[in-house]
From TrEMBL:
Residues 10-166 form the 6-phosphogluconate dehydrogenase NADP-binding domain. This is 3-hydroxyisobutyrate dehydrogenase. Its EC number is 1.1.1.31. Belongs to the HIBADH-related family. Keywords: NAD, Oxidoreductase. Residues 171-290 form the 3-hydroxyisobutyrate dehydrogenase-like NAD-binding domain. The keyword Oxidoreductase applies. It comes from Aquibacillus albus.
Amino acid sequence: MTNKDNQIVIGFVGTGVMGKGIITNLLKAKYTVEIYTRTKSKADTLIEIGAKWNASVAELASKSDIIISIVGYPNDVEQVYFADMGILNHVREGTVIIDMTTSKPNLAEAIYERAKEKNVYAMDAPVSGGDIGAQEGKLSIMVGGDLATFEKVKPIFEVMGQNIQFQGEAGAGQYTKMCNQIALATNMIGVCEAMRYAEKAGLQQVQVLKSIQTGAAGSWALTNLAPKMNNNDFNPGFYIKHFIKDMEIAIDSAEEMGLDTPGLSLAKSLYDKLEANGDGDLGTQALFKLFG
């Protein structure tokens, strides 16, 4: 589904840290973008560059060919899709709806089934790559749903990201994102410990990173978040409060499978301490503060 021959209207719900970058890239690609967020002032910069404001999700849904959402929590997703003024009560037949929120796999499945009843095509497509990935159009996108729908909207995903993988039926994108968050959770502990160890050993942390980030210890977190840790830069690219939400989903899902995840549980307990200290709105790299 390209935008060369006819004007595709994309509705976008959520203009937070991730949404702003994605919407900006869609506008640069000359798509018409209708937006909704609960606080209009937070979308002012997007309106200035061409996004069109809508007063409700229902209004946005009634005029969009494709609807994308990226909001905070599963209960926000439920509200956006299932409420009286939500997407599924006002969407047009034949529309593609894509939830990019990191949310519950079973919720993605419920949205898919309800959409199918209305001849609407639903996909779950959570992302990884943080605010930088969203701004640069370099996100990793993990997609669940129907393969034919995926192929249809892939050109739009390509505006947002570089690593775009179809994972399977509805919910598969969310399960894949849980794999990502499980791997990231314990990796963040290792990155924090490594940087504090380098500091205590009297090494130059920047120089240490030059050696280890391209070796066997290399990771996205080591390359992108360790420098922020070393500069005591805890501004959010991804909020601690949202990471805790993701870990809760992953733990619950693992328990349903009968799977023990001790590393994930440890990481969540550490992040819970940060949130209890009032640091929930900091970036995930603020875990570094606990390693003195």
